[in-house]
Amino acid sequence: DAGVIQSPRHEVTEMGQEVTLRCKPISGHDYLFWYRQTMMRGLELLIYFNNNVPIDDSGMPEDRFSAKMPNASFSTLKIQPSEPRDSAVYFCASSPGTGIEQYFGPGTRLTVT
Amino acid sequence: AQSVTQLDSQVPVFEEAPVELRCNYSSSVSVYLFWYVQYPNQGLQLLLKYLSGSTLVKGINGFEAEFNKSQTSFHLRKPSVHISDTAEYFCAVADSSYKLIFGSGTRLLVRP
Description:
Chain A has strands at about 5, 10-15, 20-25, 30-40, 40-50, 55, 65-70, 75-80, 90-95, 105, 110. Chain A is mainly β and about 110 residues long.
């Protein structure tokens, strides 16, 4: 079992640029979650999907953020345009049918200068 | 609304000593409770979970936690810690909506 895979592991970009973070969930998992971790706000749920359908995006900070899940094995989180305050570690997690127990990827550390 | 409180931001302890990391939650409905561990520059790893049944839950790496409904607590314990247990520990609560609410984390620092 390869676990949840995220890419890139590190991303450094300039303010105003578009950033795309990628996630491959564990095969067979029906739920996919995107989180953001910062020192100030801790771990925050941004959005989650069930069977590729977005269920709750109330944690998405603003319209600059968007997430898609075109199929069961791939999801993206896009920030356009990026701002320095978006600097954080972004985690993807997946969960089997119950949606309760979540398995996290290694995260993407985003730095916006 | 649910919330999780981890009162201790850092817990220093000597190697082979016992440790308890405290977690209290607030919820008006039945909950599911979790402890996750995060090693430096890594993702979160599930230590243990309480979904139902026995209130004493055993997890990986010798950790255990006890669900106390009357005190709304889910404290994490280990009888003898190792240097390798140095990490950040997060308590989390979820209800049937599957959304995990995390505490602010407790940094366990094990000293030789």
